[in-house]
């Protein structure tokens, strides 16, 4: 068996081990039976012995990784104090940017080697790097009706929370210096531009530049969701994946060679991720995109799916819980898989008569939605019929708006006069986004709300998509070598 194909199948075995463990406890008896069955195949039949044994080991490692991560939940020292109705005193450091809500704020506190979620009043303001003393009761996070909130927090390694405790600020500036500088810049950015742009334009502008959605009203978040373009205003893996491929297309259309375009796109994406504070979702998507772009930049021929699967193995080895509980990981993986498999189809068959620039942009935008649509319907319970067209009109301009928005926004901090002039351009740009969303949602039956989406829908949808990809010859062209 060729080395490339063996490597691909071994990575697939590891991911399969994590996947199976994510939904059921794998008993040791079943693993033993599988091992014995593998030995029978090796001894009595002409089977690739080395691959079969290593494949089983890779599957076992996937199972072990998930089991090891799950054990951390029960080994948590903070979790011991959950739900016992006793006040505790804890001292820790705010290790991420506060998540501001309408009437509250959420803080992630680093206590020793563990994380604690704090829900407290919106004021006073707390900042990344603040050292605080907390006095309150710990509880186990509770699931919502349609959302596994407990699993969502567990994949961030948060197993305990406290609601409206007493908080005493002890010190400030105890975090990473680079992160503090980035968050300080974001704060100045917001303070400067809230004088010249009002909601919802301010919220859209800040979301495009930093992925910061706190200034977007609940009403507009709902409208963006129903239009199927919410990912454009969030630091989502799907958004970063799409932007990276669009940037490569932009650099190619400017006359760059493939290697130069890939390298320029790689550098641009990581500068953007660092600029927005290097959130976990951004880092994960950045790694997935980087392996493929780095290979292209080095001039090596590499199969995109093999590169994508290898990046998934790296991420799952570090935190296997993201496979089931991180929608961002799921969307970025599926968006990238869609681009790798379906982009040539749209580019060379559907849009072949268009100029190269439009061909690349349209093909990237549509192909990124092929595999993400079913998981979006399953996770969020709605089906936007206008999403493909809305994304076609908005996604291609997002990289330009993001870059121009950052430059304009930075200049606006330096000079109030410049900010006032530039605010008119930014108002027009954000108005275009709001107009498209508003107009499309006025179309009758533009979306459908689905109360309960069964798992069978997800399985059947991906079966049909994989079958269609195979029948169109999009998978048969992949050698995985």
List keywords for this structure.
alpha+beta, two-stranded antiparallel ribbon, OB fold (Dihydrolipoamide Acetyltransferase, E2P), 481 residues, single chain, 9 strands, seven-stranded mixed beta sheet, globular
Report a brief summary of the structure.
It contains 19 helices and nine strands. With 481 residues, the protein is of the alpha+beta class.
Question: Can you walk me through this structure?
Answer:
This protein is an alpha+beta fold and 481 residues long. The protein has three domains: 73 residues, no CATH class; 93 residues, Nucleic acid-binding proteins (OB fold (Dihydrolipoamide Acetyltransferase, E2P), Beta Barrel); 254 residues, no CATH class. The protein is built from 19 helices and nine strands. Strands 1, 2, 3, 4, 5, 6 and 7 form a seven-stranded mixed beta sheet that branches. The longest helix has 27 residues. The chain is globular. The mean pLDDT is 83.
């Amino acid at each position: 068996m060729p080395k490339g194909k063996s490597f691909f199948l071994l990575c697939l075995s590891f991911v399969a081990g994590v996947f199976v463990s994510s939904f059921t406890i794998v008993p040791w008896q079943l693993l033993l039976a599988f091992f014995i069955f593998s030995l029978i195949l090796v001894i009595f039949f002409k089977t690739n012995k080395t691959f079969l044994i290593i494949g089983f080991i890779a599957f076992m490692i996937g199972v072990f990784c998930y089991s090891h991560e799950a054990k951390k939940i029960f080994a948590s020292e903070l979790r011991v104090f959950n739900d016992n109705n006793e006040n505790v005193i804890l001292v820790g450091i705010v290790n991420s940017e506060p998540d501001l809500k309408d009437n509250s704020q959420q803080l992630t506190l680093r206590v020793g080697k563990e994380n604690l979620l704090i829900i407290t009043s919106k004021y006073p303001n707390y900042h990344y790097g603040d050292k605080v003393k907390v006095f309150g009761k710990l509880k186990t996070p509770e699931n919502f009706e349609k959302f596994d909130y407990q699993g969502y927090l567990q994949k961030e390694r948060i197993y305990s929370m406290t609601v409206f405790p007493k908080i005493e600020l002890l010190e400030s500036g105890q975090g990473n210096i680079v992160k503090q500088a980035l968050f300080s810049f974001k704060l100045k950015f917001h303070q400067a531009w809230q004088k010249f742009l009002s909601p919802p334009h301010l919220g859209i502008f800040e979301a495009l530049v930093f992925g910061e959605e706190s200034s977007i009203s609940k009403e507009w978040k709902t409208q963006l969701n129903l239009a199927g373009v919410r990912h454009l205003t969030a630091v989502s893996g799907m958004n970063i994946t799409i932007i990276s491929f669009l940037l490569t297309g932009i650099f190619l259309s400017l006359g760059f060679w493939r290697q130069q375009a890939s390298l320029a796109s790689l550098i641009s994406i990581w500068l953007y991720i660092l600029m927005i504070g290097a959130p976990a979702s951004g880092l994960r998507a950045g790694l997935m995109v980087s392996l493929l772009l780095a290979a292209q930049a080095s001039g090596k021929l590499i199969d995109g799916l093999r590169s994508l699967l290898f990046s998934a193995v790296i991420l799952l080895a570090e935190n296997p819980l993201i496979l089931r509980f991180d929608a961002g990981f799921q969307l970025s993986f599926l968006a990238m898989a869609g681009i790798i498999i379906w982009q040539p189809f749209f580019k060379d068959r559907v849009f072949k008569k268009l100029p190269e620039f439009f061909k690349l942009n349209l093909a990237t935008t549509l192909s990124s939605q092929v595999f993400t649509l079913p998981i979006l319907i399953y996770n969020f319970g709605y089906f936007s019929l206008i999403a493909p067209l809305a994304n076609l009109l908005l996604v291609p301009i997002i990289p330009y708006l993001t870059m121009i928005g950052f430059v304009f926004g930075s200049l606006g901090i330096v000079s109030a006069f410049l900010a006032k002039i530039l605010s008119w351009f930014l108002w027009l740009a954000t108005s275009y986004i709001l107009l498209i969303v508003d107009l499309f949602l006025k179309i009758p039956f533009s979306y459908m709300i689905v109360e309960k989406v069964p798992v069978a829908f997800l399985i059947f949808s991906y079966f049909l998509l994989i079958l269609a990809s195979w029948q169109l010859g999009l998978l048969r062209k992949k050698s995985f070598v």
